[in-house]
Every structure is written in structure tokens, then in C-alpha cells.
Predict the 3D structure of the following.
Amino acid sequence: MPISIENALRDAALLLAEHQSPSPRIDASVLLCHVLGKPSSYLYTWSDKALSDEEETVFNALLERRKVGEPVAYIIGYRDFWSLRLSVEPSTLIPRPDTESLVELALERLPQGEGSVLDLGTGTGAIALAIASERKDMAVTGVDLRDEAVALAERNKVENGITNAQFMQSSWFGNIPEHRFAMIVSNPPYIDPEDPHLSQGDVRFEPKSALIADDHGLADIRVICQQSPEYLTDNGWLLIEHGYDQGEAVRTIFSEAGFSDVETQHDYAGLDRVTLG
Ligand code: GLN
């Protein structure tokens, strides 16, 4: 007996809610849109339309994956970030809306005129590509420890038609040639290895190397802050994303590394998220 779009969505949302999805209705809609190859408006306009047997089988297979907690972005293979659609793979962190506030701050602070920007730990290339898409006069370099991430970021650049970005393998500043950037940005790993948050939700499926840092999550932030001054122009800016409870510690690290005008800004949820100097 064929099932309508409306009933398939309702059943799927109930199933995912039983399996602890924090957003069962949205997950069900996104997965069904992916199966049908249609925008979400289609689900409401055509709510009485029946799914074909094949559509229903594919949808059920995706729901099985979501039921065990696999992130929706890994199941469908992409996540929208800023104005871009980014391919994602389990080798990289899934771009989050929190990080869009870092992009917004970067765009506010970037000087007018030509210059260059460095994104450390670029992953999918999200931050680098968002900045490059808004500032065609900037040359943006993104680096990542993992070759798979570099290849993925390069693919996202091509898929989004961006030409003023380049990606390379580097452990933080390890392979960066001698150069002064107008801005350095990073969303480094910053979660404490003991944080119970690591055993819940999407982070269980994401690479630990993109999430966890020693010294209560501050080890990589410290390295980036200490080495950045050598790679910044005189009035250059460093912007780093961090945990909601790390603002004070990160401001101290910035100041000790010689930065002035140090401040912490909130994300869209009103939590401390980005420190800059
Ligand atoms: N904000 C992410 C989370 O808490 C972590 C991102 C990161 O470690 N860079 O899930």
C-alpha cells in the first residue's frame, strides 16, 4: 500500500524522536527532500502524493542510518554554510551555523583593498571559501593536517565556482611559506578530552582530531596564538573560534602572545564563540 508524503514524514519523525534525534521533523524532511531530489516546499505542496516503492525503500534505508545517530550531513553528503553548498565527508567536521559568526566578524575586520587571508584547519574549506566568495580581492589560503580534507576543500572550491582560494596540507604553520597575511582565522579543535558532550549527538561520528585538544581544549589555540604574529601584517587580525566557556582563558592567551584590542564575541545563540585581536 503506497504511503503519502505527509504520512511518510509523520512516521519518520516519530521514529527518529524515539531514537533521540534532537530535530526529528527537520531530519525527516531533509532526508525525504534528498530522496525525491526536491526542495522542502515540494513536501507541503504535494503532501498527498504517494511515494513510489523505490522512493520508500531508499527513504527507509536513510532513516535506519539516522536512527543510529549518523549525522544528516554525512548521510546526504553536504551541508549548506553561508551562501555555499559544501560537500562533507566523515574525514572532516560538519560546518556549523556558530562558525558563520566568525565569518561575519572576519568580513567586518578585513581591510579594504588587496590582501591575503589564512585559514588554519580548514576542513571542508567552509571559512576560507565563505570569505573568498565575499571578498574577490583577497587571496585566501586554507590548510589542513589531513590530505583528504585538502582534497575535499579543493572540490568545494570548484563546485562553488570560487577562484581566489587555494588549499594545501600543513600542520598549523608547518608548511606555510614566509608570508604576511592581513588576517588569520581558525576553528581549531577545542573540546576537552574529558567533555561528556563527546559521547552525544553528531560529534560521535566526527573526526576526533578536529574536535579534541589537550590542556582542557586549549593546546592548539595556544600554538596558533603564539605563532601567528610572525605571519601577520602589522595591523593584521587573528580570529579564533572556541568553546562558550573558554573566552577568558583565550583572551589571556592572546594577550600573552602580544595581541592588542583583544575581545570575545558571541555566536547567534548569544554564547562566547570567537576571540579576536
Ligand atoms: N562547536 C563544535 C561542537 O561543540 C566543536 C567544534 C570544534 O571543536 N572546533 O560540537
Strands lie at 78-81, 84-87, 115-120, 138-144, 165-169, 181-186, 232-241, 263-266, 272-276. Residues 132 and 164 are 6 Å apart (CA to CA). The first helix runs from residue 5 to 18. DSSP finds eleven helices and nine strands in the chain.
